[in-house]
Each structure stands twice: as structure tokens, then as C-alpha cells.
Automatic annotation (TrEMBL):
Keywords: Membrane, Transmembrane, Transmembrane helix. It comes from the Bacteria. The chain crosses the membrane at residues 5-25, 31-56, 77-97, 109-128, 140-157. This is Ferric oxidoreductase domain-containing protein.
């Protein structure tokens, strides 16, 4: 199994843990729910990377074929789930900025904004690939995904 499955699982567990903390110390409010929903949509799409990686490295042909069929089933939704993640995160960011202000000295907000900007480019590169596919754009999309994954991890942990 690809290391990305474990990393995705780790990020999901950290996010759930943070939500439990919110629930214990105050209550889970709409802006946080929106952040979690955006994260879930991102993770749904990013798990395809884990599936591809497993297809490339798995020794058994039967497993490779089954995973490829599964991946083919979700591909029609990929761009829409990515766009949905962006829309949810825009609302998340808007409500957070309304609550805390444009406080770039706060690491959570600074890293959140960097993640938000990366997500904009990730979604854009995904749509551009539909109309003008190229190997460069494919790699750009994957590297943006990796960068986004790291930024979201830092954002949620902080
Ligand atoms: C891809 C982008 C993003 C994702 C997936 C995301 C996800 C999340 C999640 C799941 C939480 C709740 C867990 C926690 O408190 O650590 C959260 C909290 C937070 N997010 Fe984001 N976020 C993103 C972008 C942003 C942006 C652009 C901002 C800009 C203002 C932001 C500001 C915050 C703040 C201030 C909190 C803490 C809320 C509190 O403790 O009251 N996030 N985010």
C-alpha cells in the first residue's frame, strides 16, 4: 500500500482530534465545519494519488486492475470535488478572517492563506488540463497537491 494512504489517514485523524478539542473547549462552529468539509473533499481527491502510486508499485496484476477500475469510476467527479473543496475553503477563510482579522502574524492564518492560494492554483491547473493537457501541467498539478498536503498538515496541527 502507498505511503500516501497512511499520510492521508494521519491528516484525517489529526483533523478529527482538533475537532474533538473544539467540541471539548467550546463548540464546533460553522467556520470549522466548513474547514473540515473542504479538507474531506481535498482528501477524497488526493487519495487518487495514493491509488495511482499503489497501482504503479503493487506486484499483483489483479489488484492493479481492480484499483484502476475503481479510479476510473471516480474520475468524472474529480474536478467537481476539487472545485467544491475550493468553494468550501473560500467560505471557511472568509468567516475566519471576519472573526480574527487579516492577522498574518498568526501562523495558523498565514499558513491557511498559503494553503488557500495553493488550492486556487491546484484547481486551476486541474481545469486547464481538461482543455490543454500536457505532461508539465500533470506534474505541476501533482507537486501543487504535495505542497498543499504539507501546508494543510501544518495549518491543522498549529
Ligand atoms: C486548503 C485550505 C484549508 C483547509 C483544508 C483548512 C482546514 C481547517 C480545519 C479542518 C480547521 C479546524 C481544525 C483546527 O482548528 O485546527 C481549520 C481551522 C482554522 N482555519 Fe483553516 N483551512 C484552510 C485554509 C484556511 C485559510 C485560507 C484561513 C485564513 C484565514 C484559515 C483559517 C483558519 C483558522 C483561524 C482556524 C482556527 C479556528 C479556531 O480555532 O477558531 N484556514 N482549518
Amino acid at each position: 500500500m502507498s505511503k500516501w494512504f497512511y499520510l492521508n489517514g494521519f491528516l484525517l485523524l489529526v483533523a478529527i482530534w482538533k475537532l474533538i478539542e473544539h467540541a471539548i473547549y467550546s463548540s464546533i462552529q460553522l467556520p470549522v465545519w466548513l474547514g473540515l468539509a473542504g479538507l474531506l473533499f481535498f482528501l477524497f481527491n488526493w487519495t487518487r494519488q495514493a491509488v495511482f502510486s499503489t497501482i504503479r508499485n503493487h506486484p499483483k496484476r489483479k489488484v492493479k486492475v481492480r484499483l484502476a477500475q475503481l479510479s476510473k469510476k471516480v474520475v468524472p467527479f474529480h474536478r467537481y470535488t476539487g472545485t467544491a473543496a475550493l468553494i468550501l475553503i473560500i467560505f471557511h477563510a472568509f468567516l475566519m478572517l471576519q472573526r480574527y482579522g487579516f492577522a498574518l502574524q498568526t501562523p495558523k492564518i498565514l499558513i491557511g492563506l498559503l494553503a488557500g492560494i495553493t488550492l486556487v492554483f491546484m484547481v486551476l491547473s486541474g481545469w486547464l488540463r481538461l482543455f490543454w493537457p500536457s505532461v508539465k501541467k500533470r506534474y505541476l498539478h501533482i507537486y501543487l497537491g504535495m505542497t498543499l498536503f504539507v501546508l494543510i498538515c501544518i495549518h491543522v496541527i498549529l
